Structure formats: structure tokens, C-alpha cells
Amino acid sequence: MSNNRLIFKTSTSDEVYYFKDSIFIKFFNKRNTLSTSVLNGGIHNDLNFVFNHHLSQDNIDYLENHNLNDYLINLCSNYNFNPLKSTGLVTLALMKNLSIVTMMYKKLDVTAITTAGVRVNAVCAGDDASYYEENGEFNFGTINTILLINSKLDDNVLVEAFMVASEAKSVALNNLKIPSQFSNNFATGTGTDGLVIASNLDSDNSITNAGKHSKLGELIGKSIVESIHVAIKKQVWITASSQSNVLVLLNRYKLNINEFYDSLNQEKHSFISQLKIDSKIQENIAVTSSILNLIDDVEKGILKKDNAYKLANSFLQYCRGDTVNYLLAFWIEKFLQN
Hints:
The protein is elongated. Helix 3 packs across helix 4, helix 9 packs parallel to helix 11 (322-336) and helix 10 (305-315) packs antiparallel against helix 11 (322-336). By secondary structure, it is an alpha+beta fold. It is built from 11 helices and 15 strands. The longest helix is centred in the last third of the chain and has 22 residues, at 215-236. A 6-stranded mixed sheet has the order 5-4-14-11-9-8. Strands 1-2-3-6-7 form a 5-stranded mixed sheet, with no helix packed on it. It has 2 domains: 5-239, 4-Layer Sandwich (L-amino peptidase D-ALA esterase/amidase); 244-336, no CATH class. The N and C termini lie far apart (57 Å). Helix content is 39%, strand content 21%.
């Protein structure tokens, strides 16, 4: 994408522009928006512009001693957008890795515009906190989505759509088995996500429910899931295929791998070379996933540890090759042995 270029137009003629390190959306209809931004965040019905902005390292260094809201005001002014009529998100993800997904059904039209990165900041709701805030602290968004709906939603329905979109984000990460970087749980998002939803107040199609039973809720969920999958693939190269690996799956329950290698009575280099091959075998992936599910159920109190221990060890007979068998036995002893 080149600078200052129109890259997408919605069914309601809203225009999506690429501006060097930002994506700006210009509304051509009256919109009500719900935004997590520090710039005109919350619910508004008088905004004309929405954006997603990439922060360079120089920007981050600058913001250590400056106010984010002031920075975003200046950003809008530099692009000749009225900051009083704008709201937007910031992220380290590159705008060239943007994903745009549109879902339609009869008169309904939903577009999700997403950037995403999950390698260092993925977290599960309820994980131990990374900081305690009293006087404000700057954070950058990692999974940012702008959701444009062509129909009219009252503010309460807009909030319901926001809730469904947030749940869909968790589904997208769970589909890829993205691990939290702060616990053994699967991630439900990152610690610094952003979301903007806008509906069309000029539409003659008024929607009174955006819940998961509704068609609008379905379109929101599907567009969010697909756009996040595409954005993650473009930004950090994580796909269902890349996650189909014993070593990747085991990384969620972290252990000292050098301790494992030191316990082996084998030549380390040869073992690792063979392990890389065996880790991609489907049977080994299935056994690994099953054992991790047992560990999960013990952690949640669903299974007793001794029962899970016996069952997990019985799964080892289905491994192909010795390397994964040895590795899984090490994990079983560490997490399921009484």
C-alpha cells in the first residue's frame, strides 16, 4: 500500500485511507460510535473520523514524557482531520498487515478492520496483573479492531455489539490456541487491546438486538474471528498449521527444557534433530493435546491428579517415535505426579 491512498470503501460509502503509518476512516453518514480510545472515547454520535495508528519506537520514546491524548490530537491535525470529531487506536502492529473482512446478509453489512500481534502481550482475563495504576499509565494496543455496521443501532445495542465483538476476539485466539504469556491459560486477548464500533444512524434499517442469537451477532462474531486470524497471520505468522506442533503446544505449560535434556542419556544434538521431525507427526500432536487437556482439568479441579496421571501415561503408547514420548513423560511427571 502506498501513502495517502484509498484502500477500501464500505457499502455506505465510508472511505478507508492508508496514511503512511495510519489507517483513517472517513464517515459519509451520521454515526454513533463506542470507542476505547483516550481521544473521544466512550459513546459519541458526532464523530466523522476513526483511525488506527502504528507507533514507531521514536513515538514510544516520545510518549514516555508526553500525554497520549495530546499526541493523538496532533496526529489528527497533521492529517487535516478535526481532532474534536475523531477517535482512534494505537498499536505496534504495522498497518501493512491490516486485515479487512466484510460479512453480509440481506440488508446487513458488517466490516471488521483489524491489526493484531500476540507474541509478547497475550494474556488471559483473570491473569495476575502486570501493573497497578493510580495516576495513569500509557499502553499501546495490540489487537485493534474497528467494526463498521451499516444499520442503525441504539446505544444499548451498540454496547451489546461491543460485548459480542470482545467475545469473538477470545474465540479467534482460542481457535489458534494462543497461550497467555503470564499464565498457563489460553489467551483471551492482549493486555492493551482497542476496539471501536460504529453504526449508521442514517440507515432506515434499525436493529434492536446484537446478541449471539441474532444475525447481526453472527456477522459480528464471524467477521471479528476471520479478521483477527488474517491479521495475526500477517503480523506474527501464526496460523493453525504453525500451531500444529508438539513443541508449540507444550510451550503453554513452561518448563526448564535444559533440565529435560540434562536428564537424557542420549546425544543432545541428534535427539533435538529427531524431535523437530517427530513434533510434526499428527499422532504425537493428538497425544500432546490430550495430555495438556488433562493437565488443564487438574488445574481447574475437574479431575483428580492421580487419575489424570495414570491416564496421561497410558496415552504415551500412541506416540510415534521415542523423542516425543520422553518429552511428554517429563511434562507428566512435573505437572501430574503427586
